[in-house]
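tool=predict chain=A
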Amino acid sequence: MEKRNLILLSILVVAICVLVILFWMAQTETDNGVIPWIDDNDEPDIERTEWAFEITQVDDINEDGYDGDGVVIGIVDSGIDITHPDLDHINISAWMDYVNGRPEPYDDNGHGTHIAGIIAANGEIEGIAPKVKMVVVKAISASGSGSGSDVASGIDFCVENGADVICLSLGGRARFLNLGDETATACEDAIDQGVFVVAAAGNDGEDPNDNDVASPATVDEVIAVGAIDENKHIASFSSKGDNDGILPIAIDDRRDPDKKPELVAPGVEIVSTWTNGEYVIASGTSQATAFVAGGIVLLLDAHPESQREGGGGGSSSTITHFKEVFMDTAEKCPGQDTPHDDHYGYGLINVENAEGAL
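tool=predict ok
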């Protein structure tokens, strides 16, 4: 009788554990829509957000002659308005529209144009890498939503068309261990081929129930980016990482240099291009993601051997090396815990310091 009770108790414990895991998975399923992170926006005076370029040392590496020439970046977003006078110079090597199937680049939302301007504008305002070549994918609709399968297809399209870096200023709720997450799988496949994937940490920092960054920033080798303001303080909306594991056995524990987020960058009141020739101030981890993705473009310009076409590129080991450099060279922000902070990551990306350490 005692043996039977022990068996029944063991079965009950296993059943409870399974139910807990299934409940967790149900609570963390990825939304059908993938929403770009963006705060309220206002039309500004036409003037670049200089402090953002200064604290990331983008200005310094630009002065060294690096402007993204020879590097390819993929942007999976709401599209791009190439009629904007600051963007009409961009060399778009490939375009795909998974939302409406239109053959020519456009943007009926504005978010993608804002991100593209931070990276490559050249006119009234100047971006980080104005000579970079772009692969642009529209996977986000006019309303700011999109499917995970379209984003995943967009990532694959960027890889197929030679992207060295992919900028994902978007995200959705993370699944348990990224199980069944098409976008996460596409990111892993891209990284295996030596493509840098940079993704927004998310704008759920003020949600008391939030305990992790968004997907696909949750993928280990993806570089998750949080947002800071002009004073290098974390933005209140910037999502934090859950790096201690979700179960007592720490099944989801992360290891250096893959703790989340990895980096922070300017993401508060950033001026950039918008549709219909306009300029807009916007805030979010989206904008911070563009600064990190653009910074990596400059580093690949300075170190072409690390590009996919270069002698050392084309493998995930190159990405791991870059991440270790970021971990060592990122600037520590006020109040940041070291070596890693669940809000600030390893710190503020410092492009010139990273260039010298590569």
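The first strand starts at residue 72 and ends at 77. The chain has one domain: 48-357.
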